[in-house]
Amino acid sequence: MTTTHLPTLPLGDTGMDITRIGFGSWAVAGPGWHFGWGATDDAESVAAIRHAVASGVNWIDTAAVYGLGHSEELVGKAVADLPEAERPYLFTKAGLVWDPDDPKAAPRRVMKPASVRREIEDSLRRLGVDHIDLYQVHYPDTGESLEYAGGGFGAVSPNATPLEEYWQVMADLKAEGKVRAIGLSNHSAEQLEAAERIAHVDVVQPPFSAINRSAAPEIAWAAAHGTGVIVYSPLQSGLLTGAFSAERVAQLPADDWRTAHHDFTTGLAANLRLADALRPVAERHGATVAEVAIAWTLAWPGITGAIVGARTPRQVDGWIGAGAVQLTRADLDEIAAAITTSGAGTGPARP
After folding, report:
1. Is 66 a catalytic residue?
2. What structural domains and CATH numbers belong to the chain?
């Protein structure tokens, strides 16, 4: 496993110590599917992954649905030639199933046991490994299509697989040695409690940022149960990097999912005000705005690490130092005031 100079924490009781930041591979997945980020360059994507690992990041988070398998293939390619001592932990997810005849349609939430077992074999093949370090349920099974809403739990169809049934399948995969740890993403605290009665929830993965703060109850649940927490979208899909403006948003390609999302439309002005308010804090710490935004999430009790995406090595350099940024009480007070006055997002304004 990768030796690293970056700060690490134990990931719950999984036995894995992870860097405070992990590489997220949603954005490198390429175009041609419902939640794509526009055109990408595969060679540059692989270079970004390798640069993150070379810079000390010791885990990569991906999902079968990202690019309809393409993201996992890129991750597999990026790590294939690494010596064992330099290989990062690989985390992936199941439960979003797409129609190969209509790739641009929204994927469906499906966690039927036979479907999960097909998915894990496909993920193992694409990643080129014999086991997965952390296997996660992407969303609760509702039997319906997923329309991205930054999280959310959705309506449930009569065709949905009960949580008790699909979580038992995940526990079985762990017992069989196909996965080292199991987790739940985008599940409510009540759903986490129901799963815990069947098998320990090793890790949870909620969305969390200074804009989207609604997962505070799930983070608190995890802290109380010895469960690791890796949050996704700490930069709110780029809005908290300090590099966005209304003009840049207007220039996003039509096939970038962000063009239709409320964070980039009706909520854009408030979100940009908040990003601007992080600049003085960043200057005091000699850090980037992105590093401060990520450090804010890492300051919350119970959060082990944050998943951060990049499509180029240069983007990795813009956030790699976030785990070492220690925000003071005064910093947190200043950011809380900025959250309140900007009107960005919902949820508690400070740890």
Report:
1. yes
2. 19-342 (3.20.20.100)
